[in-house]
Amino acid sequence: MSTDKQLLTKSNIVVVGNGMVGHHFVEEMAKNPNYQITVLSAESRLAYDRVHLSEYFAGKTADDLAMTTPEHYEELGVTFKTNAKVILIDKIVQYVTTESGETYHYDKLILATGSYPFVPPIPGKDQEHCLVYRTIDDLEDIAASAKESKVGVVIGGGLLGLEAANAIKQLGLQTHVVEFAPQLMGVQIDGGGGRLLREKIEDLGVQVHTSKATSVIEKGDTSRYKLCFSDDTELETDLILFSAGIRPYDNLAREFDLTLGERGGIVVNNQCQTSDENIYAIGECALWNNFIFGLVAPGYTMAKVAAKHIAGITSENGEIAAFTGADMSTKLKLMGVEVGSIGDAHGKTAGALTYTYENQPEGVYKKIVVSADKKNLLGAVLIGDTSDYDTLLQYMLNAIELPDSPEGLILPMAADKPTLGVDALPDTATICSCHNVTKGDIIASIDAGAMTVGDVKSCTKAGSGCGGCAALVKSVADNEFEKRGVEVKKDICEHFAYSRRELFDIVSVEKIKTFDELLEKHGRGLGCEICKPVAGSVLASVWNDYILKKPHLSLQDTNDTYLGNMQKDGTYSVVPRIAGGEITPDKLIVLGEVAKKYNLYTKITGGARVDLFGARVEQLPPIWKELVEAGFETGHAYGKSLRTVKSCVGSTWCRYGVQDSMSMAIDLEHRYKGLRAPHKIKFGVSGCTRECAEAQGKDIGIIATDNGWNLYVAGNGGMKPRHGDLFATDLDDETLVNYVDRILMFYVQTGDRLQRTSTWMDNLEGGLAYLQDVIIKDSLGINDVLETQMQSIVGTYQCEWKTTIEDPEALKRFQPFVNSDKSDSNIQFVTEREQIRPARGQEKIDVKVIDATKKEAIAEEA
Amino acid sequence: MTNLTTEKAEKSWRTICETTDLVKDSGISALIANSAGEDEQVAIFHIPNSEEKIYAVGNYDPIGQANVLYRGLVGCINDEPVVSSPLYKQHYSLKTGRCLQEEQTIAVYDIRIENEQVQLFY
Predict the structure, then answer these.
(1) Most buried of A53, A791, A857, B79, CB within 10 angstroms?
(2) Is A614 exposed, middle or buried (0-12, 13-18, 19+ CB in 10 A)?
(3) Residue ranges of the Nitrite/sulphite reductase 4Fe-4S domain (chain A) (predicted)?
């Protein structure tokens, strides 16, 4: 069989459904060019992230949740139709027909139709404010209904039900959870764990009603509806959310005679084939071994298996890819309560033994289930503290033999708590289950050249799903680095055996005020271009002295010394601050006049201000004198410090704005201007969710909401774009500034040299949750200090240019030569698009042969 | 205004500036006329804690192709006093003029302090 022939007659693959699993299949299958893929989706949207659906209420948009785009599918060569519900399968002729009557021939058909929420047949269930929690459309309905409601009830106390309860609580409703069973989350956790979980959730103001069967939904007396329970009790509510489990979407299979399970679900074999060998079913519509997997990871595995089977891809030793079940362990945070469930949480295995630890005052419950011989871990339940989850999961998944006293694994403060060294894990151990990354994959990435934990994460994707494994990924990688003798060295240079953070502590604690003192006490040699600016930045952060004061002068990079950005020809750019991008016409005219007078190349920057290029060293003071007199101040474009706060015009002018983003941006820019940091810092403030200021791509991003401001941190554009993490929502002005003060100061103290907030965040152990604990809950008890430090920096701000032009001693540095009034003849310009630009090599005129008149014409003097 | 001097002069110690014009642990630049009567820019660094205390090298950065070296940060690499180019950060030895990263060398001048006068031999 020739490849040519294969290429001419591509096999047709038709995928019905474009949820997370259907999409994953498309990505897997599209790797192989011999197949023409057609996606038919009944929904109006292409695949989006349902796992993080609840974040929609925390400010994420449908676009944020999207997993693909039409452009991406076009790039992959995938044909797709949305709003295309399939209503007919012809298994003999092999085609499907959609509602609108279009037919598609298939060689292989993939059913990835997913599931739908089960709504119990309660009389009265079909009324207007009776909703489900499954799709983005559902969420929009819930949000709309919540606006007209005061009380909300979730029917169903499982994992999804509690997430739904959290969502309506966030929408400001008085929230109830009604569960048929005697406990919450009965599938994942045991009675003891359920009891504690209930206490914790009730502490948060959500009322839990267990052992309640709803018999009818009637018109309410005080609220819109009334739930009547079988025990003759009632509950008044305005909004009802059903979350009583899911049911496989198997109606197509049912109608066209594919084998189904007794209680639904399309029966599949280990290759995910249905009873028709040309039809596969994957994800939540598929029934494997009489079991439906309601998690995304097993769905992804099925998608991979089906794609490999279709393409005839086998493993190295010829084995056919197979789905052989999946681990259903989960770790999550429900309304801030940590919950973990591993394997046989209920101890159903014959002969299983359990160990339980409960600490009621602290709200912690831990149980492990072990085999009869106490050698293997079978399952675990963790409530209130899931720090042991990773270790326990590895014990179970890899059948690692338990220590003699297994209870030590869950007891707090056990002095000899057995720690599972990462060395004990086999290479096959799954470290990141979201992306199915094993320990072996991490080692392979290091073999392939990954040098840092950040490298490992970006090449394996480990830790980029739910993020639960981040700490484990780091220890596996660090362990591997250590083995290879890669010293995880943080010394900034040969002169100081310390990291920037350590130097920061030394300077603050020992009250060191100069570089010489620091070098004498803690360093060696003369210093260099690495440690000097770091010391300069740290000294500036701690003491906030004028950076060109004598002892600090020699520490600054040339950009800081000359308070401008050096360009390739040795001239500088001049960038005055235009806070928030707001400028009066008069000031704009001054900029134009100065640029014209000194013949400076003029450009509007991406940060909404004006750059004036081509100023010689000796021109900087007169230029700045004019600017300062006109009311401008330095823009710190040269510093590792706050650059710009980009803003949209906000509610003052914009029809859509909900807050005054302009005033907020200007206030913030003036508050933090001059702050010295490990690297430059940019802010964005948007006046509404349309996000015109692109705030999520900034170190600090602020987006207005109806109720205040949402705060994003650690976004980045540039070389490695990163969306900011949503840090807190609906903040008032004061709290917002307060949090930003603390976050910035914490970054200034702990960031490494030249580390932007995005990499700082990626390397922060514990990530976003840790930062939230530090800043919001003051878990380190340092917030007072952070605020005091920021206050002293804000209070001692001075415009460096104003200080410089008033100081004759400082001005001496701007003379081009100590012994001559001439200018540097190597700086020459030519004209392009009516402005100057630096002359290139062959355009330059040799000064040795140039006559005076010509030189003056070219090397323009003021 | 092309050449400082036109007649070819014998090399000798000539005063450039006063010691008060120097900036500790940093550089200044001077303009001299070389033996061919052409303008030459010199970067002068004052590092009191180093062995020789004062150094003079060419101001032209042959890699960045601009007269900027006096604006570079000074320090030491393996005890060799160096200046780091402010453009692309290569190190040049202040003793030998040799670039530590690439095949380039800059001029080195004899310099001394006599009675608070900074003197260059050219």
Answers:
(1) A53
(2) buried
(3) 639-757
